[in-house]
């Protein structure tokens, strides 16, 4: 939930380069500020002709105009926190350092050195200025492992090395140092904050995605936005890690190289909460209206589930707590739909979405040959998995059966099918699970079957 104080909207300033591809630089920063409910202002330092594959040209803005932008914003609007991104030359770094010292603005420094495409964004001879002039006026510095190696002068191959580098960089003046692990090896992306003599480590599963352009920019912008709201560095670190993980999960597949991450993912999710819940309410109404539901109701009950468009886990899936049960011939929901109320169907949806982002809804009905025949006669694609073929190591992992089964069924069908069935196992009722984009359309299919 983004809380916005309408009486006093926090203001953040980004002093950074422009990316014509809209993925990194000030474009990523402004999206991130907006996603976190902060008004964003800018001082453009360089204009880059850039896309997802390369940086084709760089034109630095004159030092006078960079200073004028900062002064224009500070003198009228006021700035609660600022960040730097691409500062191409020593002259630019020195000018920015002077302005920050003059106005005493809390500053986050993202020591941008090289673009994801490999192009240098900081001149080699400017690293010294960055260390001497910018780090001493910074509140937080957010290097990735490669940038931390350059700043600290040590090689980073492990979390221990990253901790050592963070301490060395802290000696250069900033209050907090975050060494990001995104560019390192391993199944987890581990970021380390060194602040007030202590380390905080945040972990997230490493996501396989090409669409990560602008990650460093969004991360530092999120820290800046939270500092602008008056949050502590540690809290800002947590928010930034969370936002970036979500933004990479739903990176934007544009261009032929590294597409941008999507800093708006959590905002879009929040905006869809009510509409998603209402689709489940409507689907339940359709199911409760079925005249004779005896042939479609399983012993364990029916559930209807629908996920948010940028769902991360079962908390982003709405369903009926306690499910929908047969009372006489009719179905009756035990309670009103809620997010986080589904265990099984949420897993069907979340796994299917790894193959097809459009899938957001699921309904389970009783397994029978008759119900399968009805689905086939409606032209729907049906696939299946056999719980007795589940490998031992999958069985041993809590909650792994359905993701495994969905993978088997999807691979068998060559796409996410319209329905997946299994014939049960010891103590496990056989089931048919319908999958699709929308809970209401699925409920209509169930009504036709019944
Ligand atoms: C104008 C501009 N600023 C910063 C960058 C760096 O972005 P990227 O290459 O995606 O690297 P990270 O943000 O992930 O560190 C850029 N390319 N252009
Ligand atoms: C209990 C159950 N098992 C299913 C299976 O396919 O194995 S579907 C199902 C019902 C839905 O469960 P929930 O309310 O946790 O989403």
From TrEMBL:
Q: Which Gene3D superfamilies match?
A: 3.40.1190.20, Class II aldolase/adducin N-terminal domain (3.40.225.10)
Domain of life where this protein originates: Archaea
What are the EC numbers? 2.5.1.3, 2.7.1.49, 2.7.4.7
Q: Which reaction does it catalyse?
A: 4-amino-2-methyl-5-(phosphooxymethyl)pyrimidine + ATP = 4-amino-2-methyl-5-(diphosphooxymethyl)pyrimidine + ADP; 2-[(2R,5Z)-2-carboxy-4-methylthiazol-5(2H)-ylidene]ethyl phosphate + 4-amino-2-methyl-5-(diphosphooxymethyl)pyrimidine + 2 H(+) = thiamine phosphate + CO2 + diphosphate; 4-methyl-5-(2-phosphooxyethyl)-thiazole + 4-amino-2-methyl-5-(diphosphooxymethyl)pyrimidine + H(+) = thiamine phosphate + diphosphate; 4-amino-5-hydroxymethyl-2-methylpyrimidine + ATP = 4-amino-2-methyl-5-(phosphooxymethyl)pyrimidine + ADP + H(+)
* UniProt xrefs under InterPro entries: Aldolase_II/adducin_N_sf (IPR036409), HMP/HMP-P_kinase_dom (IPR004399), PM/HMP-P_kinase-1 (IPR013749), Ribokinase-like (IPR029056), ThiN (IPR019293)
Cross-referenced Pfam families: Phos_pyr_kin, ThiN
Gene Ontology MF, one: phosphomethylpyrimidine kinase activity
Q: Which residues form the Thiamine-phosphate synthase ThiN domain?
A: 280-447
* One GO CC term on file: cytosol
**Pyridoxamine kinase/Phosphomethylpyrimidine kinase domain boundaries:** 19-262
Q: Does the keyword Transferase apply?
A: yes
In its UniProt record, which GO terms are filed under biological process?
Answer: thiamine biosynthetic process
Pathway(s) annotated for this protein in UniProt: Cofactor biosynthesis; thiamine diphosphate biosynthesis; thiamine phosphate from 4-amino-2-methyl-5-diphosphomethylpyrimidine and 4-methyl-5-(2-phosphoethyl)-thiazole: step 1/1; Cofactor biosynthesis; thiamine diphosphate biosynthesis; 4-amino-2-methyl-5-diphosphomethylpyrimidine from 5-amino-1-(5-phospho-D-ribosyl)imidazole
Supply the alphabetized keyword list: ATP-binding, Kinase, Multifunctional enzyme, Nucleotide-binding, Thiamine biosynthesis, Transferase
Q: Which PANTHER family match?
A: HYDROXYMETHYLPYRIMIDINE_PHOSPHOMETHYLPYRIMIDINE KINASE THI20-RELATED, PHOSPHOMETHYLPYRIMIDINE KINASE
Query: What does the protein in this record do?
Result: Catalyzes the phosphorylation of hydroxymethylpyrimidine phosphate (HMP-P) to HMP-PP, and of HMP to HMP-P. Condenses 4-methyl-5-(beta-hydroxyethyl)thiazole monophosphate (THZ-P) and 4-amino-5-hydroxymethyl pyrimidine pyrophosphate (HMP-PP) to form thiamine monophosphate (TMP).
Query: What does the similarity note say?
Result: In the N-terminal section; belongs to the ThiD family.
Protein name (database record) = Bifunctional thiamine biosynthesis protein ThiDN
Organism of origin is: Korarchaeum cryptofilum (strain OPF8)
């Amino acid at each position: 939930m983004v809380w916005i104080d309408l009486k006093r909207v926090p203001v953040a300033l980004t002093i950074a380069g422009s990316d014509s591809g809209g993925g990194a630089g000030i474009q990523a920063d402004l999206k991130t500020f907006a996603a976190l409910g902060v008004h964003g202002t800018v001082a453009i330092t360089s204009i880059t002709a850039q896309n997802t594959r390369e940086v084709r040209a760089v034109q630095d803005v004159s030092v006078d105009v960079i200073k004028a932008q900062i002064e224009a914003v500070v003198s009228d609007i006021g700035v609660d926190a600022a960040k730097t991104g691409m500062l191409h030359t020593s002259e630019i770094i020195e000018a920015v350092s002077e302005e920050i010292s003059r106005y005493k603005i809390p500053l986050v420094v993202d020591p941008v050195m090289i673009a994801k495409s490999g192009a240098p964004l900081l001149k080699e001879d400017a690293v010294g200025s960055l260390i001497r002039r910018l780090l001493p006026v910074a509140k937080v510095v957010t290097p990735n492992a490669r940038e931390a190696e350059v700043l600290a002068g040590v090689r980073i191959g492990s979390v221990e090395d990253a901790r050592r580098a963070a301490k060395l960089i802290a000696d250069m003046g900033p209050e907090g140092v975050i060494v990001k692990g995104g560019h390192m090896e391993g199944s987890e992306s581990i970021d380390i904050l060194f602040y007030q003599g202590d380390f905080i480590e945040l972990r997230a599963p490493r996501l396989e995605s090409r669409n990560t352009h602008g990650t460093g920019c969004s991360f530092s912008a999120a820290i800046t936005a939270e500092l602008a709201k008056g949050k502590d560095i540690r809290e800002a670190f947590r928010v930034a890690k969370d936002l970036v993980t979500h933004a990479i999960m739903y990176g934007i597949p544009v261009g032929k190289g590294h597409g941008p991450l999507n800093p708006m993912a959590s905002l879009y999710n929040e905006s869809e909460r009510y509409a998603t819940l209402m689709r489940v309410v409507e689907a339940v109404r359709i199911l409760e209206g079925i005249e004779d539901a005896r042939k479609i109701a399983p012993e364990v009950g029916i559930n209807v589930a629908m996920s948010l468009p940028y769902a991360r886990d079962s908390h982003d899936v709405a369903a009926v707590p306690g499910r929908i049960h047969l009372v006489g011939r009719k179905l009756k929901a035990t309670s009103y739909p809620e997010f986080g109320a589904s265990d099984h169907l949420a897993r069907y949806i979340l796994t299917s979405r790894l193959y097809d982002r459009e899938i957001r809804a699921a309904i389970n009905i009783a397994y029978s040959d008759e119900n399968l025949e009805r689905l086939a006669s409606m032209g729907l694609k049906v696939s299946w998995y056999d719980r007795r073929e589940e490998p031992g190591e999958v069985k041993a992992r809590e909650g792994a059966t359905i993701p495994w089964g969905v993978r088997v069924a999807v691979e068998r069908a060559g796409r996410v099918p319209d329905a997946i069935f299994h014939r049960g196992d010891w103590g496990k009722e056989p089931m048919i699970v319908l999958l699709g984009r929308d809970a209401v359309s699925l409920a209509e299919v169930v009504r036709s079957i019944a």
